[in-house]
């Protein structure tokens, strides 16, 4: 039986010759699969309804939401004279599906054919410019929006402000904000976010304090701004004010607070945030659960991290990576490698970050055998190109074992040889760069190993884990 039957689209119904627009619209509203959609679309064509742009927009919107953008484009380009609403929908579909260049090409095509944009066209197109960092085209479209008479539209202005800040032009972002006669909470929040992104914490706080009304997004952005600027105490002070203002936090707020706990190295405060979520009915989803694992691990409670991991019903790659790394840096290398193998059995594909955790686990337990095995497995089994963190781990293992020829071979094989500071640390006391060392000479090899061991001791995990050595 066809899946289309699930919403009472019977063969008799599809075979009716008097298939009307309202009936097709109802079926499209109930449609849940791409197969169903194609069946309904075929019936629409046979019934002579392919001129009905309301139906075609429903099809385009469904395809946009279900990762069938090519089919949506096929439907769109068969419309002889799309309405501006239909152009907007297709531009929006491209923008939301990481096809911003296609969105901009379609906008240019729309303009060349003489179809007039409206106030809804410009936010979609400007967002596409922001996504692909097309500053010059976005600036030109700003001018076109002014000529079209939409310079005072609040949605256009909010999108323009966001565009300029994302393109690194804080000056123009400020100008848009200052020229706005009417502002809503999105306007103020966009300004705060933009100033934070441009590194002006003081100005962002000043705008935040002048906001006539603040919602959870506004509070969260400002809290996160302080966390990113390594001012966790101020982040918690803002959270206290947020509660006094009777604004309920969301999971993004709480994840920012967990990062603040990590910055403070306060396990007690981290447990308080965890308890707060439990008392207020927050679910242990992938996003929040992964943040909890990270906090517990970096604040010294591997037990707490593992407890959260085991309770999570769904886990992302980031979740596995966090737990594997946590086990490794706490000295449980074998457990970390066992967890990696468990991850593979669940058909989760590892990435470069996974192998940073795996190789770090080998490094923490001084396990050269497994380190070599997983380094080769990463490159040959998964086709992952080594990054400098991978090289750092494996070179350190070879250095400890005195296998200096292998050290030399790996260093010479590295795709980037000039940036020695990343691999060896910045505190080299004026010693020779890697490129200047001759690995046939014992003195040069000893120099290299000495520098590597010194820097791994100075720049090791103690600086990451606040509870151990600060």
Automatic annotation (TrEMBL):
One Pfam assignment: PPR_2
Gene3D superfamilies, per the entry: Tetratricopeptide repeat domain
PPR repeats: 83-117, 184-214, 215-249, 285-315, 316-350
Record's keyword terms, sorted: Repeat
One MF annotation (Gene Ontology) recorded for this entry: RNA binding
NCBIfam families given in the database record: PPR
Protein's UniProt name: Pentatricopeptide repeat-containing protein
